[in-house]
Amino acid sequence: MTELSIQLINLFASILLLLAFAMLAQRRVINLVHIYAMQGLTVVSATSIVAFVTHQEHLYYSAVMTLALKVFLIPLVLHRLIKRLDIRWDVETLINIPSMMLVGIVLVIFSFNLSLPISKLSTSVTPGTLGIALACVLLSFMMMITRSKALPQVIGFLSMENALVFAATSATYGMPMVVELGIALDVLVGVFILGVFMFQIREQFESLDISHLENLKEE
Amino acid sequence: MILRQIFLQSIVSGASLLLAPLLMGWVSQLRAWLQNRKGPGILQPYRALHKLFNKDSVMADTASPLFRFAPYLVFGCMVLASAIVPTFSTELPLAKAADAIALVGIFALARIFISLAAMDIGTAFGTLGARREMFVGFLAEPALLMIFFTSSLIAHSTSLITIVHSLTGSSFAIYPSLVFAAFAFILIFLAENARVPVDNPSTHLELTMIHEALILEYSGRHLALLEWAASLKLFAYSSVGIALFLPWGINEAGSDISFLYAIPLFIFKLFSIGILLALIETFSAKMRIFRVPEFLATAFLLAVIGMLTYILLGA
Fold this sequence. Notes:
The complex is a heterodimer. By secondary structure, chain A is an all-alpha fold. Chain A has one domain. In chain A, 79% of the residues lie in helices and 0% in strands. Chain A is built from seven helices and no strands. Chain A has helices at 2-25, 29-54, 57-85, 97-121, 129-146, 150-172, 177-205. In chain A, helix 1 packs antiparallel against helix 2 (29-54) and helix 6 runs antiparallel to helix 7 (177-205). The N and C termini of chain A lie far apart (68 Å). In chain B, helix 1 packs across helix 3 (65-84), helix 1 (2-34) crosses helix 9 and helix 2 runs antiparallel to helix 9. The interface between A and B is medium-sized, with 27 and 23 residues.
């Protein structure tokens, strides 16, 4: 039973990495939100399996909270935001996707190498997942750097938080409940504030391209 | 014992020869249904083959012996390829002749000869098709090799038979690395068999065609052989997919009774792959040829990540 659970957690870790790459290659904003919701669902499944294996009760609450927040509420808010901003069919021009993927591979190798000695010291049931979680964090980080529009950057930030939660659950069986509640609230408030912020950017520059923010304006 | 092996091999080879056009017909029939058309019927490829075999073959004046020889070679390659992939039995005497890497080589040999033959006549379309075919091929081949390497790492062998044995033999295990490999394989499957996001098998639109441009100059029995070879290639790729990612229920050496359900199970898997293929083809639009490198680079990277996860997770 434990053997199967470990394999399942490894499987979900791999799916998380797969989704991080899918996000990196995605051009349409609306699909990014879908991938984000799938990522949330993967984290929920992994968390509940870890909770089941280790009998840590607070992880169940964490899973339920993640389900409510990251699979339903935040994607819903993002959907409404996309509708209100009318960027549903926005296609973003990215810098050359194959080369970005290549950089992604380098990041994956880097984080796998980095985490290999750490995971050997680890006593958790799934030491290998730490490297994958680190790779997901770095990939989301790269997505935030390379995107030019505001909304994909926010989604990159959110998926980075997803990967961090996954790292915490699989490496150390989750953070204390208070910390987790705090982070969840932070993310929720962050999404709302960034949503308002996006409207402001749009009003000022008539575009969500944040490169406009670099220019000085004299009035 | 030898008689039994020859018997099994001939059943597997015969089944692949007969089932391959059926798979092609099933996919195009499903596509027609999904597009609210009536469709030509699932047996249409057989009728087309019958018609082509009864027609005279027309040769261009400039054709060299290579042009005449290429269809037989391509057909032979595909027959060999589908004979060495374990479809519903792993007891294949021919399978010892070639492992997964040699299988990629057999596909490459067929590709080189069909491209040479297309250039042989000297028409613009043939050359265009040949160039595009090589363009897709040189990007797809390393990805296919990487997929085979991922499963070879698990089985500690490049022989397809051993891979199937080690995936089915021991107790049930989930291999995350195979998830990546499976996604990469779907992309390669579409590109190599000239399916929709990369090429449209049912048009002769000169801007987009790849496979059709290659065989434009062929007619009669040569065209029939090439069409049959194309369906055999689809069949061989589907069998590779089944062997690597859905190997359960393949008949193992030594047991006779499982042969009875191995064949229906295999046909069921094949038809499910047909459904998946038709769905993918219906829901995706054909991409520009300059987007193809991006598509295939994604496949290659997924396969590489599969290998990396195997090294990290050990599964």
